[in-house]
UniProtKB/TrEMBL annotation:
Transmembrane segments: 42-64
Highest taxon of source: Bacteria
A Pfam family assignment: DUF3311
Organism: Roseateles chitinivorans
Protein name according to UniProt: DUF3311 domain-containing protein
Species lineage: Bacteria, Pseudomonadati, Pseudomonadota, Betaproteobacteria, Burkholderiales
PANTHER family in the cross-refs: BSL5891 PROTEIN (PTHR40034:SF1)
């Protein structure tokens, strides 16, 4: 492997956050494979699964916000013009 291939640009490091929901799901097999205790009236595994869905949504929102490709640079006059998907 070349040094350039092993180097991850700083602008892409936030994508590693996407592993958190996967690790949460894998940990659930070992840690949350039980019914009790009940959390808000739900069995523990169901509460764990719902927490994983919420975690995934928050992580994906954070990745979206941290991704430089999603930053609008309209302050510097770098607007690309009208949206080609609209009828104008």
């Amino acid at each position: 492997m070349t040094p350039a291939a092993s180097h991850v640009p700083p602008s892409r490091r936030h994508r590693w956050l996407a592993l958190l929901p996967v690790l949460h799901a894998l940990a659930g097999v070992v840690l949350a494979n039980r019914v009790q205790p009940f959390v808000l009236g739900l069995p523990f595994f169901m509460a764990w699964t719902i927490a994983g869905v919420l975690l995934a949504a928050l992580v994906m929102a954070a990745i979206y916000r941290l991704d430089p490709a999603n930053r609008g640079d309209t302050e510097n006059g770098a607007d690309d013009g009208p949206d080609p998907r609209t009828d104008a």
